[in-house]
Amino acid sequence: MASTDVRAARPDDIDGVLAVWGVARSAAAVTPDTPESVTRVIERGTLFVAELEGRIVGALVAGWDGWRGNMYRLAVLPALRRRGIARALVEAGHERLRAQGAVRVTALVGLGEEDAEGLWAAVGYARDDEMARFVRNL
User: Fold this and answer.
1) Alpha helix (H) residue ranges in 1-138
2) pLDDT (tens digit, 9 = 90+) per residue, 107-128?
């Protein structure tokens, strides 16, 4: 298998990211995926992609709010999972967040998504049983 390149997303990656999220995003992700929303995260430098043989096969948003890092929307095409692609995306996110001053990172993971929970545990994250997440649509 060819090596996977992980890098910051570019405007020409929008269709590829939407395609990955269309088949591989968490069922818990309810915010609509649009070209405009992907453009915004690309402009902020918070979207990373994994590319294999010229095709986007994975994506991750790694954002920084000035206080802590946040990772979400991690997705890898199902046929290419368990090959280190998600781990490489997470490491790229860590590098960016570390460079911005982050010392703590939160990963948003759908409850009961065992594969996702296993991945985040494997890369050193612990489940936080003390905090709940509250959300509201605007």
Assistant:
1) 14-24, 35-43, 85-100, 114-122
2) 999 988 999 999 999 999 999 9
